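Before going further, it is useful to explain how the protein records used in this thesis are read. An example of such a record is reproduced below.

***
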Amino acid sequence: MKKFGSNLSLGQYKAKESFWYFDELPEEERILAYRLGWQIFDQNKMFFEDFSAFHKRKGYLLQSLGYLIAVSLFAAVFFIIMVHPSDLKYAFGLFVLAGSIMTFIVIMGKARKNLRETRRFFNYIDPIDKPENHKAFLRLDLNDYEGAEAFYSNLRKGIDFKEEQIEVVEYDKTISLLAIEFLIGNPGVLNDLKQKALQKDQEITSGGFDKVISSVIGGTDRGVRDYFSKISSDILNAKELSSKRKEQLFKVREIFVKAGLKRKVASVDDFVGKRTYL
């Protein structure tokens, strides 16, 4: 298992990539080598497009190197057969020809494999077309082998990462206001704050206060006004809660349960218990 350090310079990383230093690694480690490469490019204030272009260009350069070596070796064969004075020049030329063909096949096979894998990888993490895959790649740590293995598994199977879905629950204004009041005190506390705000700042009107609250939590201005003027006091002073109010308070309780606020859960239970006849 290879340890990836981030102390390579940009030139050192490019040299290692150009000479297939990382290509023989297991798949998950190859993913981490890409992650190391992007970290180095990023540290040098280069764009992701530069990182992608370097790897794609590297594959074409390897192909060009293969053709250059092939041409050089075939020229050597031609020289041996046509110019070399030795009696064994045909055998020697055949030997060099066989070696030339094998070398060409190995280099071109390597180059084509590199191009194919590079294209597949960068298409998979394209920040425009595959933004969630790109984010998943950036979240990988350099020694996160399990994460890299899972990432490669999705890459191999063609499975895209999904945007993290956050469960959004919309509550009516009564539940929202009750939750806020229980969070900072008990039912009625917001109305007390409203009265203090009206007394302290002459610019604030009752209707303006209600409009701000309704804009924040949803609902209508009238609904918020009804909560402050009637609903909140009715809940606070009720000797027995109606089934509708109990349901609303139960949803407030659920909010605190999800938030892990045990004391608030207990305060809602206590509040409901005192207003329920068994």
User: Anything to note?
Assistant: The radius of gyration is 35 Å. The mean pLDDT is 81. The CA atoms of residues 166 and 258 lie 13 Å apart.
